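Support reply, case 0932

Customer input (verbatim):
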Amino acid sequence: MSDAVYFQPLAAAETSLEIKKSRFIASALPVKSELAARQFIQYHKTLTPSAHHHCSAYIIGAPALSQQFAYNDDGEPAGTAGKPMYQVLYGQNVGDICVVVTRFFGGVKLGTGGLARAYADCTKAVMEQLSLQQVLPSCELKLTYAYTHSAAIDALLHNANISILNSNYAEAITLCVRLPVTEVDSLITDLNQRTSGEINIKKQP
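Our regenerated output:
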């Protein structure tokens, strides 16, 4: 399958673990933007200001392709918290997600290896609580055509697996639609046949 196929959470989840007297609370939230992820992280810092650390990781979009991701150790030794959390998300191919692990230090030091295992285990634990759905790669098309073709195209699009993102009715009709990449070639062929090629089709970046 394509690297762009991935899984996303359907709802928030939370779980807690106690590891060598430290309490870890792992919280996960579906997010569609880096802003939403940062707001979720800040929410937990505000919610439990007495906690010693609020470590985090998020990925927006398909993990294998995403350029919108980040992780943060929030005061833990470098590389012992945020990155292990991120690696769990990446390894399970889950995107559109933010995970925050809040730690209340219990007085027993875990060492760098112990910390990395603890944060990874907490992330795995909250992931087990999530309901996930598969996300297939999609493509946007911009369609421009004359009103004389509207009935035929409306009927074709009605039976296709598409979402209409926006529309503009001026001298001609312009629709922006999104559909699975696996169905793009078939739809383009059908559109050209229905309009005898009298349609402008552009793939959007």
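We compared this against your earlier run and they match. Two observations from our side: The first helix runs from residue 34 to 47. Residues 6-134 form a domain with the Ribosomal Protein S5; domain 2 fold (CATH 3.30.230.30). Please reopen the case if you see a mismatch on your end.
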